[in-house]
Amino acid sequence: MMEQLQVDRIRCDGHGLCAELLPEAISLDDWGFPILKTGAIPARLAEHARQAVDACPVLALRLAKVRS
Amino acid sequence: MPSSRHLIGELESANLLGRGGAAFPVGRKWRAVAERASGRAVVLANGAEGEPLSLKDRTLMATRPHLVIDGALLAAEAVGAPDIIIYVGAKHRAAEAAIRGALAERSNQLRSRVRMMSAPDGYVAGEESAAVHFINAGDARPTTTPPRPFERGVDGRPTLVQNVESLAMAAQIARGIDANTGLVTVSGAVRKPGLQEIDLGWTFSDVAAAAGGLARPVQAVLLGGYFGAWAPVDEVWALPIAAPSLRARGFTLGCGVVHALSEDACGVDATARIMAYLASQSARQCGPCLFGLHAIGECVRRLAARSPQASDLDRLSRWSGQLAGRGACKHPDGAAGLLGSALSVFADDFAAHQQRRCLRRSTSHPASLQPVAAVA
Lengths: 68, 376
Ligand SMILES: Cc1cc2nc3c(=O)[nH]c(=O)nc-3n(C[C@H](O)[C@H](O)[C@H](O)COP(=O)(O)O)c2cc1C
Ligand code: SF4
Ligand code: SF4
Prior knowledge:
The complex is a heterodimer. Chain A is an alpha+beta fold. Chain A contains 2 helices and 4 strands; from the N terminus they run βαββαβ. Chain A has one domain: Alpha-Beta Plaits, CATH 3.30.70. In chain A, the strands form 2 sheets. Chain A has a two-stranded antiparallel ribbon. A two-stranded antiparallel sheet of chain A has the order 2-3. In chain A, β2 and β3 form a beta hairpin. Chain B contains 16 helices and 9 strands. The interface between A and B is medium-sized, with 13 and 15 residues. The site of one iron/sulfur cluster has 15 residues of chain B, from α13 and α15.
């Protein structure tokens, strides 16, 4: 099992906090909304990813288990 | 008529693909709903038809309402659904009247299982989660998935959302009639625009011939409507219109729209009109769709008017690659696909417009992208 970031596009307000905390996997578009790198989160980033998920003020970001 | 389980197998071997846009295998969808249904599923017949260049669903419902109802009933039997909802675009008055009339000719027992719902105007109201949301809560905006409607849909029950033409085709297959036909709305530079029932083995040139032939020389074809893609005419002209042959070239017929753009019409202008429409139809819930489509619409509009900002074309290329998968529904994906195809098929025209020039005779051909007159 691997983990993958997912964002609830309706909830996301474009705060951009997640991209600050996890620039390795999240960038922002011209309007401040996240663009997620495709694929599973590498193990070395797992902890940072969890912090980004926790930091999202509107609970739009989550880590989902995916089959590798 | 074959048993309902048997029918699922028949749909699978006939390789019937959904006719609402995504070309998903119909039999596989019925199986997925049947597996979760435990006799409490819902069938939602999708006749919203918001696509501006399509007439097929409203015409089908208006002229063959019993076939659509039969298809919905067969689906209900096959997936285990006591209830059926027929969701008809509010503008499609003749279609709605015909379905109502046809229901009145059926048994009370059947009528008690079928409910009609009027789909509000707007492109996105026909998207499956939007349809379910509207029926559940009167709000025709898409919802975050999962859960998808087949998992949790109308009243929280597994819901089969199926385009009305797909249902009609299923009814044909159940009657032993071959499913190798389809409804196609032809518009643009042909002599007789309108609805055609075609054989899926036909090529685009056959389809154009059935539509009275070309009215003017054509440069490109819009396949699948506002959600589809532009294709250079030479690339598709001799291809059979069936999904596998198109898919091999990266195209789909989507909801069966073929629009021919004449040589003298400007692809930038045509694309600007489509993008402006798609931007106006965003359900305004997801940032990338709300802001992205608006910005793209403005950018193509400036280019079409030959008054672009310095890097408008570069911006468009970048944005067209950034939108897919970034909305709750596939609205931005459709828009990005259309834009990407335009940037490649009309590359010379876009480059000229960035230099404030137009390569075509008429930037705005009168026949270009006007919806064809309703048939029914
Ligand atoms: C923005 C948007 C609009 C849509 N509008 C329609 C529609 O008007 N009618 C329709 O049948 N499907 C529409 N769809 C596709 C539906 O979500 C769904 O896939 C379809 O009804 C399933 O039927 P099918 O498998 O028989 O094609 C739309 C999809 C999107 C993303
Ligand atoms: S922190 Fe949350 S709301 Fe802000 S951009 Fe990221 S996902 Fe969206
Ligand atoms: S992607 Fe656009 S149309 Fe789809 S739900 Fe989000 S805002 Fe609405």
